[in-house]
Amino acid sequence: MSNKLTLAGTIWIAADLHLGPDNPDTVQDFLQFLHSAQHQAHVLILGGDIFNAWIGDDQIAHPAPWLAQVSEALRSFAQQHPLYLMRGNRDFLLGKAYAQHVHATLLPDQVVLDTSAGLILMSHGDEYCLDDLAYQRFRYWVRKPWLQKLYLACPLSLRQRIADSARAGSQRGKQYKSKEIMDVQPAAIVAACEAHSVHAMVHGHTHRPAVHDIPGFEPVRRWVLPDWESDFSKEERRGGYISIEGTQLCLHQWGKKDQCQTLGPQQV
C-alpha cells in the first residue's frame, strides 16, 4: 500500500460534520471541538463530509462568515499540530487550494495510518457501499476530472443551485432504499482489510457509529465514526470522534459511554 501515513502521539479522527450556513449550532460544536483538540491531540484527521456541500475551492476568495470562522479555526489548529483532510461524498470537490489555505494536507480516498496501535485503514467509507448501485454510478461520474472541470467553470451561484438540487434528490432517493443497501458491503470490507493487512478499519459516511466485528477476519474490527447534528434533530445532539492514544482506540459519542479496545501488531 503506497498511501501510508506514519503518525505519532494522540490522534483524533472525526467525519460527517456537514458544516454549512444552515447549521450554526453544529458549527459552534465543531469550533469547540477544535479548541479541545488543540490542547489534547497531537494530530487531527477530518475524514470527509466536513462540509454539507463543497462547490469549489474558489469559495475561499469571498467566504461566507461561517466558512471564514471555520477556516480560521482550522488554520489555528494547523499552526500547532498536523491537520489532515479527506474528501467525502458531499465535499468530493475539496481540493489542494483549500487544504493549503488552512495549512492542512489533503489525503487520498484511502490511507493506511501507521500508529502506535498498529496499522489502521482509514477512508470516508462510501466506496464500500457497493450494493447501492445508484449511488456508485453517481460517485463514478462526479469524480470524472472532465465533468468536475465543467462544473467548476460555472458561476458559484449556479453551482450552489446544482448542489442543492442534487442533495435534495439524494434525500428523496434514500426513502426508497433499505438500510442494508446504504450500508457497507461485508465482502468489500474483508477484501480491503486483507489487501492492506491492517489491525483495524476506520470510516464514516453511514452515520451508524459502532464498533463492528468483521466475520472471518477477527480480531480486526471496523470502527464507524458518528455524524454531527446539533440543529435539527428532535433527539439529543449527535457527534463524536475516534481517538488513538498509545495502543488504544476509543469511539467517543456525545452523551454515550466510550467504546475502547487495545490494539497492537501482536494481535494479528
From TrEMBL:
EC category: hydrolase
PANTHER family in alphabetical order: UDP-2,3-DIACYLGLUCOSAMINE HYDROLASE, UDP-2,3-DIACYLGLUCOSAMINE HYDROLASE-RELATED
Name used for this protein in its record: UDP-2,3-diacylglucosamine hydrolase
Entry cofactors: Mn(2+)
Residues in Calcineurin-like phosphoesterase domain copies: 10-209
Amino acids binding substrate: 89-90, 132, 170, 174, 177, 205
Keywords (A to Z) from UniProt: Cell inner membrane, Cell membrane, Hydrolase, Lipid A biosynthesis, Lipid biosynthesis, Lipid metabolism, Manganese, Membrane, Metal-binding
Organism expressing this protein natively: Alcaligenes faecalis
